[in-house]
Each structure stands twice: as structure tokens, then as C-alpha cells.
């Protein structure tokens, strides 16, 4: 089954990849009676050709693929409530037909989506909530060993100092307003503030922060576009170029 049923079954999160024969590989995950990563292979016109399991059970979901060449690639996967909570990796040596048993990486992952891609020199970068619980921090990370180990090089968002310290709405509002002022032109401040308070203040009582669901692409000009959910109130878009990235790597 490759169509969603009440937001379950086979779902898509990661970027597609393109095979030399014109087929399209879509990293997906199965979430019905289990949670595990898969690769859905489509024809050039969109028909489903086959579905390849990358894992089984209840361990991984939402894979993202980082292609090395025509036969080799690495998948980085969201954790599905394992202990300790870490992102998972798997690799293929035969163009995605078979995948290695997923192994835990050193990247903390609080059961949250991540984004990743491979740079021209072989290094990998990822955007993820690199903490064990909550989604208070969203970081840019780099790996030099095919995704086994990751090192944070930049914080896009960081509210870790509020961990286990939820705020009353009265204390939350001025902090949220100050954050909104730093974002520059774009979102309607009043609307975003209202959405954030409605979505982040449980029962109108205690409020927290949340940054998640990153999606990262590299454009034809070599620049990087990142979007993610900002406090469950709007989609934030950031752009950075190779020079900005190299300063941090």
C-alpha cells in the first residue's frame, strides 16, 4: 500500500533521488503496524515499480538519502523511540537494492525529523534537533565519516536553557515578541504570536518552544535553502551559501 490511510501506511519526508535509467527513488516510511524506513522506486512517469525495505520493526522512520555515486548511498533516519535516542544510518552498495542493518550514530534524536545532504567533497551536513528530548534546539551538523559521527557547527535555534522550565503565557509573550523582532520582514507578527500561543501553551497554562521538521536542498546556484517549522506557527525559510558554510566547517 503506497497511499496514506488516516495519515498512516506509506508516507514521504525525504528528498527524491534519480537513477541513471530514469527511475526515481523516493525515501518513505511505513507506519501501520510498525515503523520502518523504505525506498519507493517510481518510473519516470510516476508509476510505482517496487518498494524496498530498509529496516523492519519499530525502530526507524523518515529516511533521507545521501548519494555517493551510482551504486553507493547512505540513509540517515529518524529514531522511533529507541533508548538511547539516536539517529540511525544504513548504507547500500548496489544502487539501493539492499540496505545494511541500521546502526545507531552519535547524533541525538528525540524522535524528530531531520534533513541531510552530501557536499561535493564527500562530507555530509544535516539539520536536526540534536538533543535527547524536546525540540528546543535546531542545529547544523557535519560528518566526515559517512554519517557515523556528527559534530554541531551552528545553532539555527536554541532554547535549551528553557528545558524543563515552561513559562506562563504572561512570561512567554514578551520573549516570543522579542524573537519575532529578530526575524526581519515577512510574517505577520500578531498572527504568528497568536498561533504560537495557541499551539505552544498547553490548555492556556504553560508554554514552551518548538523548532522542527527541517527540509534542506541545494539549489542550482550552489546555495542552500532550509525551511522548518518555527514554534508551530509558521514555516521559516533560511538561505546560506558555500562560503558561509565553509566558515563553520
UniProtKB/TrEMBL annotation:
Sialidase domain location, by residue? 2-226
Report biased composition (Polar residues) as residue ranges: 89-105
Query: CDD domains in the record, alphabetically?
Result: Sialidase_non-viral (cd15482)
Instruction: Identify the stretch(es) annotated as Disordered.
Output: 80-107
Mind telling me which residue stretches traverse the membrane in this protein? none
The protein in question is named Sialidase domain-containing protein
Q: Which organism is it from?
A: bioreactor metagenome
